[in-house]
Write a structure and sequence with these properties.
Layout: H1 3-12, H2 15-37, H3 85-121, H4 123-137, H5 141-151, H6 161-188, H7 192-199, H8 204-212, H9 217-244, E1 257-258, E2 261-262, H10 282-290, H11 306-330
Antiparallel strand pairs: 1-2
Helix pairs in contact: 2-3, 2-11, 3-4, 3-6, 3-9, 4-6, 5-6, 6-9, 7-8, 9-10, 9-11, 10-11
Amino acid sequence: MRPRARAWARLWGNLPLVTGLLLLAFFVAAGLVAPLLYPGSGGSLAVDHGVFDNCSAPSPPTAQLAPFGGGPHPLGQTAHLGLDVAQGLLLGTRWDLLLIAFLVGASALVGALLGAIAGAMGGRVESILSPILDGTLAFPPLMVMVTVLAVTYSGPLEGSRMVVFLFGMLAVLWAPFAQGVRAQARSTAHQAFVEAAKASGARWPRILLRHILPNCSAPVLAQVPSSVFSVFFVLGFFQYLGLVAESSVVPNCGTVRVGLGVVHSIPSGLFLIVPSVRFPEWTWTLANGLSGFTVGSILPEWWGYLLPTAWIALFLLAVTLFCDGLAAHLSPFRGR
């Protein structure tokens, strides 16, 4: 078998990688098709709110998948804000894909580079970088973001909650990548091919880029799914609290009830991440589906929370399968 044919056979024989690629292609296609299904929507969702105790009635999913822009809601409509679930998920796809690509991509790049430098060079360099890395790992992302958003609640960054969220998460997400790469780089730095590169006079930047980092892909790929989950968990936490914290986020629709009663005292600006209640985003759509929760209720409007949860879970599955398959494909010990 020719080398190229062997490579293609090896690729298509990697079921997790192929499945992950197909699922990711589905989400990319959904993001591209969404503006065609909802022309003129841009970054704004249709909100159908009513008056107090007479909010927009929840509408269950229907079999009528077209047209998406009007009539029956194919994936249902939530109560309170009256968001169309299909519109929220489809229009939110491009924003969430960009969000994940920026956060996880930048975190992986920064973490892999710093981890490789600390592990490969050792000595004084590692003694400087390691305390920073270990100190960052000691703080959970959720606790960091609560502090960051509280500090920037008022001031010049008050109107830039999404920017604060992005860089606040980036400040903690790089550390797990660096931790795995540091251990791998420390081992790789003593391999024969690296010693040969040193003996030939190669400088450290070349050794890091050509020999150390390419052999540290496994810990980076292993960390990606966990980082994606962390982003959705932290973002969803603030989206939900931002929705239920203040009645003014539901114009003319009374107060959103949650938990043991009605939340009045918490300022919604402390939690609200998205630019507006009309902004399309997956966890924001999920938060709207959960916003009617009260003690003793069974959330009969299942489409408002189960469908967004399944959509996010499917994306997490796609990322996990792709990363696992790619790691196996790049492994030199995988069967040929």
